[in-house]
Specification:
- By secondary structure, this protein is α/β, with parallel strands linked by helices.
- It contains nine helices and eight strands.
- An eight-stranded mixed β-sheet has the order 1-4-3-2-5-6-8-7, with helices on both faces.
- Strand 2, helix 4 and strand 3 form a beta-alpha-beta unit.
- The radius of gyration is 17 Å and the shape is globular.
């Protein structure tokens, strides 16, 4: 079941690759319309453009949470539900949240409840979740500082956070090959199988990603400790984990 808290599907997707990347509400509107547009073939293109590595990356992300049995886990920016589905298979109580109704409509979340909502206003009480996970959504949030604060609010003290994202390999040759694939081949693949404008935007959206020191600062400001960086597959992907401080600061 999908609970909609916004106003349906966004209409159309247009991206001018020569223009500056959007910010604020313009970014929010663009991201929502983009994911509505690519939802039907999102899983197929994801698998092809990562050579199937996205599945192991998600499983590793869940392992890094070190969850107790039957934990309540919010999958923020859940997309088509891969993380929520994997969490359910492990016996956890997962809930998927996404801004895009198109993605939620295409989701296969293994029976996890799905809610359409903005990550800056999660429809959950303070301290309601044992963990929060997010897969490839960090660079798509319009206000990452507000999102991390909101995630900190809904996590119980001592709760866990894991953010899976694309990365930049430290090895020079691997980095060159990865950049060529992501910036030149992936847009062609996306245009053939899905939406060309969306897959021209996605490589450029890496510019939104914070550095690890910036992640540490953002998460510390939101009440997190023990922030750690985990390179995956030589650094072409990364996972940032953190723990909600046992002493909850008032917002």
């Amino acid at each position: 079941m999908i609970k909609a808290t916004n106003n349906g599907l966004a209409q159309g997707f247009v991206f001018d690759a020569s223009a500056p990347l959007p910010e604020g509400q313009d970014k929010r509107a663009l991201v929502r319309s983009m994911f509505d547009a690519i939802a039907p073939r999102y899983d197929l293109v994801n698998c092809l453009m990562t050579f199937g590595l996205d599945g192991p990356w998600r499983r590793r992300t869940i392992d890094l949470l070190r969850l107790s049995p039957a934990s309540v886990v919010l999958d923020v920016g859940c997309g088509t539900g891969d993380l929520a589905r994997s969490l359910r298979r492990k016996g956890h109580r997962a809930v998927g949240i996404d801004l895009s109704l198109g993605m939620l409509t295409a989701a296969r979340a293994g029976g996890a409840p799905l809610i359409q909502a903005d990550a800056v206003a999660l429809p959950f009480g303070t301290g309601a979740a044992d963990a929060v996970v997010s897969g490839f959504a960090v660079r798509n949030f319009a206000d990452l500082s507000e999102v991390t604060r909101e995630i900190g609010r809904v996590l119980r003290p001592g709760g866990r956070l894991a953010l899976l994202e694309v990365g930049e390999p430290p090895n020079r040759l691997l980095s060159l090959g990865h950049r060529a694939w992501f910036t030149h081949v992936v847009p062609v693949l996306g245009a053939l199988l899905s939406d060309g404008a969306a897959y021209r935007y996605l490589p450029r959206s890496v510019a939104y990603l914070p550095s690890f020191p910036e992640f540490v600062r953002l998460l510390a400001d939101a009440g997190f400790t023990d922030v750690r960086h985990h390179p995956l597959s030589g650094g072409i992907a990364q996972c940032v984990t953190a723990t909600r401080s046992p002493e909850r600061a008032e917002r």
